[in-house]
Amino acid sequence: MHLLVADDERVIRNGIAKMASQYQHSFSSIRTAYDGLHALELINEYVPDILFVDIHMPKMNGMELCKRINEQYRNIIMVVISGYDDFEYAQTCMSYGVNRYLLKPITTKDVQKVMDDILTAHSYPSVFLLECEDWVKRIEEHLWLLQWDEIEKCILQWEEDLSTRMNVFQIRNLLNDCMKMLIRRLRERQFTPISPIEEMKSYGAYKSPFSHFRAQLRQVGNDLVKWRNGNIKDPLETAKSYIDHHLSEELTLESVAEVIGMSTSYFSAFFKNMTNETFVQYRTKKRIEKAKRQLAVPYIRIVDIAAEVGYEDYPHFSKVFKTVTGYTPSGYRKKLGIK
C-alpha cells in the first residue's frame, strides 16, 4: 500500500507519517505534501492507495483537493483531518467520496483504528468469486497457449469493469485470489511455476494491481516455457501424440481435450487454428495412414486392420477408406500387388 499525508503543518504531517509507519500492515511507501497543490502534483506522479488530508491548507484546501480526486482518481481512499470547528467542512468532503475523517489531536491509536476500518470495509463481496472463476478459466487457457494478446484483452475488459465497482483494495485482494486459483488449475495440468508467486500486499513500482498481475502472469508464462523445454512438448504435439497412440480406441474430441487440459470447444477451435484441419479430419487421416501400412502386410486380415484403427464396423471402414484413398481396402492391396 502507498500512503500520502497532506498537511501544511510539518509537525502534524510528519507525526501522522510516523504513526502510519508503525501500522501492522506496513506501507510500501509513505510520502508527505505541504499543501494541496503539492499533494495533487504527487498524486499525478504516483497514485497512492490512501490519502490523509487536512481541511485547511494554503493554495488548495482539503475540500478542493478531495473534489479533484473524486473526479479524477476514484480508487484513492481519502481520510480527512479536521478540528471540531471544521465538522461541517468534513461533512461536505464526505459528498466528494471521502471515506473517513480524523479529529485533531490525532494519536497512533486513531490512525491504526481508521486503517483497520478501511481494510475491513474494503474486502470484496464473495459474489465476485463466481466471476473470478470464469475469468481465471479464460486466462488459464490463453496462458497455456501463450496467447498474450488474448490475455491482455481479458485483463483490459475486467480492469474496466471492476474499476467502476470496486476500490483498489478490493481489486488487489480479488486478484490475489485469482492468482491462487490460476496456480491450482495449472497444477492440475501437472505444471507448477518455478518462481514463487508472492501475495500482492502492495503493487510496489507498478501503477495498479492489474499492472502487478500482468507482471505475475509474465513470470508464470516464462516458467511455463522453461518447463516445456525441459520436460514436455507443446499442447498441440501432446494432442497429436495421444491421437497417434490411441487410434484403435474410441477416440473422441472430448477425451483428447481432457488429456491436455482444455475445454472441448476451446480445444476444437485451437486444433483447427493450429493444423488447418478439424480433429475428425486429423483422426481419420492418421487412421487411414495406419491402415495403409498394415494393408501392405499380406497376412493381416482386413477386418482385423479395421478394428486396429478404430473401426469395429467393417463396411464403415471400407467406405471411409475409399473416400480418402479412392480405393476399397482390398482394391488398395491389389494395387500393391498383394492377392
TrEMBL record:
Protein name (database record): Uncharacterized protein
Modified residues (4-aspartylphosphate): D54
Superkingdom of origin: Bacteria
InterPro entries in the record: CheY-like_superfamily (IPR011006), Homeodomain-like_sf (IPR009057), HptR (IPR051552), HTH_AraC (IPR018060), HTH_AraC-typ_CS (IPR018062), Sig_transdc_resp-reg_receiver (IPR001789), Tscrpt_reg_AraC-type_HTH (IPR020449)
One Pfam match: Response_reg
Lineage: Bacteria, Bacillati, Bacillota, Bacilli, Bacillales
Domain HTH araC/xylS-type: 237-335
Keywords annotated in UniProt: Cytoplasm, DNA-binding, Phosphoprotein, Transcription, Transcription regulation, Two-component regulatory system
CDD domains: REC_YesN-like
Location (main, coarse): cytoplasm
Compartments reported by the entry: Cytoplasm
SMART domains xrefs: HTH_ARAC, REC
Domain Response regulatory: 2-119
